[in-house]
């Protein structure tokens, strides 16, 4: 099917008529193209999330590849990288191929599996990274996310080993001995609430160690969900020295602070935890500076019973796919080039997803894109989200920017703000 | 019960020395009716019953040289209308050193109205001991009883409408002695 | 009046003082032969205990019964709680039973806050995790006021494992609200970072017990669990006891009028020497007795009105 996106503004430029045919941007008008009135809409390259939890296999009551794909498409995404902490863990070629195939079947976004670094995420023995890399899933990012690869020797080996297939280790930076029993950011609020603190240094110490390791062995390192001002400083210095490190931040760490824990509602419990306002300010600046390369959702659906309980018993994590772009838009305003880079181009490059994050002004670019109405605003209603879970921290908030349409290789996955297939 | 508005018209019934004369009369009646107030304890019901009890004791002492023990009996926890209002602060319950067992207790309150306060006082008294008899002295009886209760000593009967209220102020608490009838007058 | 008592921070000075004054009346009434008062007749108080604490449960039970409330004890052992029923489902059950107040003891900080979302009645925190224990702070304040005559301007040292102590948190908040000057004392590992900023700006921190004792009107010793040793908070009980225990030598440095408090249960010989615990300065037994009066006051003020 061919489309004409009439009067669309590519990254905020003057309106044009954009034709899509045979899965790519067409350089010339196409007869019989379905017309989408894109007046006032912004075209962005389809968003790419390097950090998504789809929960399948294992916790299909919280999310499935299919429901997560719907949420992703509605959020403007054309590709998501599915984290390995499923049950069973995605630590073999078999599991990553299963997730990859489920993604294909849903057909709404490219689901790119992330492989576990260690068997069972246990941090003891390296998983068969090569087998996952050469599987049908073509895995390039490896992560024990949820757990830190804490053993420095194992981390060093993993960083070295993946060089053979241009892989990257995505580290969940959390020194486990410093965060035993941790429930929230260690600071004034944790003292007041009597919740065990998760000190910033537990993240910063691991990032500092890992950039030194990556430098030593000449490998790529990716740092998941950076959450502190101190981490930003460590990364800034490493990048200035030329270390091949990339880093991501989540929308919630760009907006929310630890004060929200005051009512003990676990919808605000996340790992790493919400930090202070000065951390938020440093993270925003790091996104602007490019010290942080990527905004990634860490979309973490949880069943109702895992959140409607005592704070300490609740699972950490927040929904993110359907609210990421609006949050980023509310934080940075309509800086479309910045948004496209941090949410599509850079993550596609890190994940090795060649068809994504392309230049929409060039004929022949794969037609992975999303249309945003920056003038529209909406109120977040947990029940109205496509995710199977409801654990959004933004319930009741009015957010700017509505995703009107999303195209995956020229096919509409979302039209008029609704899933198209 | 509906209260008259703050700016409702009011009429002064007793003030200053009138009120003192009324207290004197009650003191005389007590002496007369109890054969010299021996074996008697005065228990004031907070708030304004307590200074009234002390005044009666002082007057009895002045008239006959008899020392009548005085205490206070808070009835808050025994009220049957606790849940109809916001939580009330407690008053003091203080029995004289000799207690009340086997003695004549005279309960003292400012206004007798529905009789429910007196019922609560009788319940509270029962948990504190066993007096030989209980009597009631009030400064004002405004009528409208809801329980079979009557006072043994009444300073002044004031016929009232239900829409009216009686306000007693005492020097010890309010800075002036006065009994006022509020509302209902046109 | 407030609806719930989840934290000592729920109390302003006027409300806290009203509770203490009411407790004093309750204490006076408790001395008589007929201890039962009819104020809460027909009201149901549920003691929901997820942790064993016979002392606290009995204290609340006695308080509720003296006010003629119906008391239901719902303990984690031998109930549906141990079968993994969620706090929310338990709350809905209690709601259906018509609980007017739920007194909750729970190992998770903030559980009373969560519970208050799911029941219509009042929630009273009887100790939650490492967060707060507001009625303990009220009975401590009551004990100080009855022994020393005032709270305003009183200098109180709270000594020991402040980091993990719900008693310390509630006491710092309440005592500061009532005008006392609090110093928390202990090894740096057991004093939370930013304690003054987190709880109340006037709170002082000291790592030297000997320098604090002569200036204190009240020395409150906290229970120190020996498990903390394994977690490197301090090297040994011997060293802890030497540096932060209240022994006879230190007690002699106290002012004539100063008192020693302990929320119990005590580790005799660890944070407090037996001779100190049993000395006339010690208010430990009074604290227990005052607990019932203070809890009567809290229940009456939460449930006595409309």
UniProtKB/TrEMBL annotation, chain A:
Q: Where is the Dihydroorotase catalytic domain?
A: 42-229
Sorted alphabetically, the keyword list is: Hydrolase, Metal-binding, Pyrimidine biosynthesis, Zinc
Enzyme Commission (EC) number: 3.5.2.3
EC top class, as a word = hydrolase
User: Can the keyword Zinc be found in this entry's annotation?
Assistant: yes
- Sites binding Zn(2+) 1 sit at 51, 53, 145, 298
Annotated coiled-coil positions are none
Q: In which pathway does it act?
A: Pyrimidine metabolism; UMP biosynthesis via de novo pathway; (S)-dihydroorotate from bicarbonate: step 3/3
Q: Which residues bind substrate?
A: 53-55, 85, 271, 302, 316-317
Q: Its biological function?
A: Catalyzes the reversible cyclization of carbamoyl aspartate to dihydroorotate.
Family the entry assigns = Belongs to the metallo-dependent hydrolases superfamily. DHOase family. Class I DHOase subfamily.
This protein is called what?
A: Dihydroorotase
Give the source species: Actinoplanes palleronii
From TrEMBL, chain B:
Q: Give the reaction(s) catalysed.
A: UMP + diphosphate = 5-phospho-alpha-D-ribose 1-diphosphate + uracil
Domain of life the protein comes from = Bacteria
Protein name, per record: Bifunctional protein PyrR
| Domain Phosphoribosyltransferase, chain residue ranges per copy | 13-159
- Return the broad EC class: transferase
Enzyme Commission number(s) from the entry = 2.4.2.9
Motif PRPP-binding: which residue numbers? 105-117
Automatic annotation (TrEMBL), chain C:
Q: Which GO biological process categories is it annotated with?
A: 'de novo' pyrimidine nucleobase biosynthetic process; 'de novo' UMP biosynthetic process; amino acid metabolic process
Q: Which GO terms describe its molecular function?
A: amino acid binding; aspartate carbamoyltransferase activity
Q: Which gene encodes it?
A: pyrB
- Return the PANTHER family for the record: ASPARTATE CARBAMOYLTRANSFERASE, ORNITHINE CARBAMOYLTRANSFERASE, MITOCHONDRIAL
Known EC number: 2.1.3.2
Can you give the residue ranges of the Aspartate/ornithine carbamoyltransferase carbamoyl-P binding domain?
A: 3-145
Q: What does this protein do?
A: Catalyzes the condensation of carbamoyl phosphate and aspartate to form carbamoyl aspartate and inorganic phosphate, the committed step in the de novo pyrimidine nucleotide biosynthesis pathway.
Catalysed reaction, written as an equation:
carbamoyl phosphate + L-aspartate = N-carbamoyl-L-aspartate + phosphate + H(+)
Give the record's subunit note: Heterododecamer (2C3:3R2) of six catalytic PyrB chains organized as two trimers (C3), and six regulatory PyrI chains organized as three dimers (R2).
Q: Which UniProt keywords apply?
A: Pyrimidine biosynthesis, Transferase
According to UniProt, this protein's pathway is: Pyrimidine metabolism; UMP biosynthesis via de novo pathway; (S)-dihydroorotate from bicarbonate: step 2/3
Q: Name one GO cellular component term.
A: cytosol
Q: Where does carbamoyl phosphate bind?
A: 55-56, 105, 133, 136, 264-265
Output the superkingdom of the source species: Bacteria
Q: Where is the Aspartate/ornithine carbamoyltransferase Asp/Orn-binding domain?
A: 152-302
What Pfam families does the record tag this protein with? OTCace, OTCace_N
Coiled-coil region: none
User: What family does this chain come from, according to its entry?
Assistant: Belongs to the aspartate/ornithine carbamoyltransferase superfamily. ATCase family.
Q: What is this protein called?
A: Aspartate carbamoyltransferase
Database matches in InterPro entries: Asp/Orn_carbamoyltranf_P-bd (IPR006132), Asp/Orn_carbamoylTrfase (IPR006130), Asp/Orn_carbamoylTrfase_sf (IPR036901), Asp_carbamoyltransf (IPR002082), Asp_carbamoyltransf_Asp/Orn-bd (IPR006131)
Binding annotation for L-aspartate: 83, 166, 223
């Amino acid at each position: 099917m061919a489309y004409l996106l009439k009067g669309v503004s590519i990254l905020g430029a003057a309106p044009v008529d954009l034709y899509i045919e045979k899965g790519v941007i067409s350089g010339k008008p196409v007869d019989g193209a379905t017309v989408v009135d894109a007046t006032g809409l912004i075209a962005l390259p389809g968003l790419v999330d390097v950090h998504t939890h789809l929960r399948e296999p294992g916790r299909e009551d919280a999310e499935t590849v299919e429901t997560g794909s719907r949420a992703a498409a509605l959020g403007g995404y054309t590709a998501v990288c599915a984290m390995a902490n499923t049950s069973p863990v995605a630590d073999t070629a078999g599991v990553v191929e299963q997730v990859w195939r489920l993604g294909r079947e849903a057909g709404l976004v490219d689901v790119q599996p992330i492989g576990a670094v260690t068997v069972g995420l246990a941090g003891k023995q390296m998983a068969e990274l090569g087998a996952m890399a050469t599987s049908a899933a073509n895995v390039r990012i490896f992560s024990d996310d949820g757990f830190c690869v804490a053993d420095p020797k194992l981390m060093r080996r993993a960083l070295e080993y993946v060089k053979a297939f241009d892989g990257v280790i995505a580290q969940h930076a959390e020194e486990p001995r410093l965060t035993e029993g941790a429930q929230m950011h260690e600071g004034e609020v944790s003292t007041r609430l009597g919740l065990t603190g998760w000190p910033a240094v537990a993240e910063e110490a691991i990032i500092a160690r890992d950039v030194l390791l990556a430098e030593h062995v000449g490998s790529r390192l990716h740092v998941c969900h950076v959450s502190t001002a101190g981490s930003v400083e460590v990364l800034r210095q490493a990048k200035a020295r030329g270390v091949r490190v990339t880093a991501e931040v989540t929308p919630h760490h760009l907006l929310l602070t630890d004060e929200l824990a005051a009512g003990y509602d676990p919808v605000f419990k996340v790992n790493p935890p919400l930090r202070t306002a000065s951390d938020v300010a440093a993270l925003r600046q790091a996104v602007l500076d490019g010290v942080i390369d990527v905004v990634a959702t860490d979309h973490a659906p949880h069943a109702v019973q895992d959140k409607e309980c005592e704070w300490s018993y609740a699972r950490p994590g927040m929904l993110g796919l359907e609210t990421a772009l609006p949050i980023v838009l509310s934080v940075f305003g309509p800086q479309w080039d910045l948004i496209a880079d941090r949410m599509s181009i850079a993550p596609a490059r890190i994940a090795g997803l060649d068809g994504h994050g392309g230049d929409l002004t060039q004929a022949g670019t794969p037609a992975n894109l999303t249309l945003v109405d920056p003038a529209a605003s909406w109120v977040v209603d947990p029940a109205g989200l496509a995710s199977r879970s409801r654990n959004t921290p933004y319930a009741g908030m009015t957010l700017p920017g509505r995703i009107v349409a999303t195209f995956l290789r020229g096919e509409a996955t979302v039209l008029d703000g609704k899933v198209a297939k | 019960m509906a209260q008259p508005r703050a700016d409702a018209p009011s009429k002064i019934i007793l003030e200053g020395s009138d009120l003192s004369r009324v207290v004197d009369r009650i003191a005389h009646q007590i002496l007369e009716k109890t054969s010299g107030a021996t074996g008697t304890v005065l228990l004031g019901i907070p708030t304004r019953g307590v200074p009234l009890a002390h005044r009666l004791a002082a007057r009895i002492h002045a008239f006959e040289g008899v020392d009548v023990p005085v205490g206070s009996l808070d009835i808050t926890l025994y009220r049957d209308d606790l849940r109809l209002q916001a939580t009330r602060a407690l008053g003091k319950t203080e029995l004289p050193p000799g207690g009340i067992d086997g003695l004549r207790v005279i309960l003292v309150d400012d206004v007798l109205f529905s009789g429910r306060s007196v019922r609560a006082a009788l319940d509270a008294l029962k948990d504190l001991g066993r007096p030989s008899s209980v009597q009631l002295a009030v400064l004002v009886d405004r009528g409208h009883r809801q329980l079979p209760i009557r006072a043994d000593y009444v300073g002044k009967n004031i016929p009232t409408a239900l829409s009216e209220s009686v306000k007693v102020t005492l020097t010890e608490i309010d800075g002036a002695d006065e009994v006022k009838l509020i509302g209902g007058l046109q | 009046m407030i609806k719930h008592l989840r934290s000592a921070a729920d109390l302003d000075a006027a409300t806290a003082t009203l509770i203490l004054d009411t407790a004093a009346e309750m204490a006076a009434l408790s001395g008589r032969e007929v201890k039962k008062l009819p104020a809460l007749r027909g009201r149901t108080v549920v003691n929901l205990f997820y942790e064993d604490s016979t002392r606290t449960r009995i204290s609340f039970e006695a308080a509720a019964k003296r006010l003629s409330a119906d008391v239901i004890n719902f303990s984690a052992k031998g109930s549906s709680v141990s079968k993994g029923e969620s706090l929310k489902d338990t709350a809905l059950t209690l709601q259906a039973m018509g609980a007017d107040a739920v007194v909750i003891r729970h190992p998770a900080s903030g559980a009373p806050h969560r519970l208050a979302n799911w029941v219509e009645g009042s929630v009273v925190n009887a100790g939650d995790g490492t967060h707060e224990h507001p009625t303990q702070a009220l009975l401590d304040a009551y004990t100080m006021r009855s022994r020393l005559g005032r709270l305003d301007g009183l200098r109180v040292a709270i000594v020991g494992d402040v980091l993990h102590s719900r008693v310390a948190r509630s006491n710092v908040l309440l005592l500061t609200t009532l005008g006392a000057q609090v110093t928390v004392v202990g090894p740096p590992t057991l004093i939370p970072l930013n304690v003054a900023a987190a709880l109340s700006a006037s709170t002082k921190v000291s790592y030297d017990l000997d320098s604090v004792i002569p200036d204190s009107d009240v020395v409150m010793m906290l229970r120190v669990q020996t498990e903390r040793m394994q977690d490197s908070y301090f090297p040994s009980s011997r060293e802890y006891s030497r540096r932060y225990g209240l022994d006879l030598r230190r007690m002699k440095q106290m002012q004539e009028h100063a008192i020693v408090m302990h929320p119990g249960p005590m580790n005799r010989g660890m944070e407090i020497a037996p001779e100190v615990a049993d000395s006339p300065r010690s208010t430990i037994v009074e604290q227990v007795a005052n607990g019932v009066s203070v809890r009567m006051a809290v229940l009456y003020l939460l449930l006595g009105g409309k």
